[in-house]
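Q: Predict the bound structure with iron/sulfur cluster.
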Amino acid sequence: MEELLLNKKHDEARQGEAYAPFAEDANLYTRRFYIESYGCQMNFADSEIVASILSEEGYGATRNVGEADLILLNTCSIREKAEQTVRKRLTEFRKLKKAKPSTLVGVLGCMAERLKSKFLEEEKLVDLVVGPDAYRTLPNLITEAEGGQKGVNVLLSRDETYADISPVRLNSNGITAFVSIMRGCNNMCSFCVVPFTRGRERSRDAASILQECQELFDAGYKEVTLLGQNVDSYHYVAETTSRPVTFANLLEMVALISSDLRVRFSTSHPKDITDDVLHTMAKYENICKYIHLPLQSGASRVLQMMNRNYSREWYAAKVDRIREIMPDCGISSDIIAGFCTETEEEHKETVSMMESAKYDMSYMFFYSERPGTLAQRRYKDDIPEDVKKRRLAEIVETQNKLSQESNKRDLGKSFKVLIEGNSKKSDAAWMGRSSQNKVIVFEKGTRDLKPGDYVNVRVNDCTQATLIGEIV
Ligand code: 5AD
Ligand code: SF4
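A: Predicted complex:
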């Protein structure tokens, strides 16, 4: 019940996904690694960087954990539940290791950073512990672990962006890809563990981002999603020029690679998204009209305790501004129910803000206190679990109604859809997305189309989560 919607950001369907490469030459590799990923898109993108580093060392990916020489878990710390899942998996892997002692087991990502040597010393569950900024040292740590030592590196960096590493695309559909544009976060939202697990914010070299996007397009990809904890604070100054590249500049440069390459981005902080970004989105048809704009709470007092740096009114004005510049823009949100001291009135303010923002979709959670965060140090986690869950249920119910209404507004309209593949339910239907990020399913009919093609689809029907249409 903690995470209730399938989503692209914390896609429940992908949690614990075992990676296999999109295309690989089986003869190149002498050893096999198995990697399971948890958490946000950034973490899934990191697994592709890890795959690239390992492939240089002669490791190929496998989906079959039994044949792996190296088992990796790329972990998330954002809520307690995510950590519990990983612990359970580690216990299962320990059994595998007993049967085949030469197998190395490693923890990567945010939990590695948070729990550091606890995994190694107290729990003796793993051979390797590697934080998000230390993946380049994996080959050395593996060698150490093979020699019987424990391999640990959880140092955070001020400048690591893995800019020069070309990610090995894992489990890709060959059409859509994620591209990291920055790492870390400086926001210090009081509920959030990310500044501690991923460190200071740093922006990746713009030229390397453009090169990666160009290479993806040349390889047949038609959509890139630029990823960062707070993309609107992207800021890069090349050594050769003194002119900074802002996020609006970067968006424009990526959009100019080709009008056939769609550009998306995530996540935006309401306090940082600028008119410049909104105007750039409006100017280019291939920049998708969709913004993920987390609200967290609709009550100004709670927002202040969360250290979000905006009020209810300020947020509402930002939504109005988006709609003014792009009337057809999709907007989604993250919402936390039952943050410390939240009153019933304040909870109702969250619900009413959701209704006035008319979100197309939301990711909804109840508050989970995380050790080391500002909220854990400053405030009491005083909302009883049953109250948190009831408030969350009301928030989910509100969103379900809003999503249904949003889909109904699309009935009769036509959308340009990028085909991603077959529909899950039938090989006779395609599945794709509109610019607004809504999934549209439609019969293939007699048209000779393939994944990666754009096609206009008119919406005739809908469920809460999917639009159903026909080619026009
Ligand atoms: N408890 C519940 N939800 C959280 N989030 C982040 N930290 C917590 C927490 N401690 C949610 C926020 C954030 C999303 C990625 O996860 O809504 O935007
Ligand atoms: Fe991503 Fe945050 Fe989870 Fe780390 S803790 S994987 S940054 S959501």
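A: Residues 1-8 have pLDDT under 50 and may be disordered.
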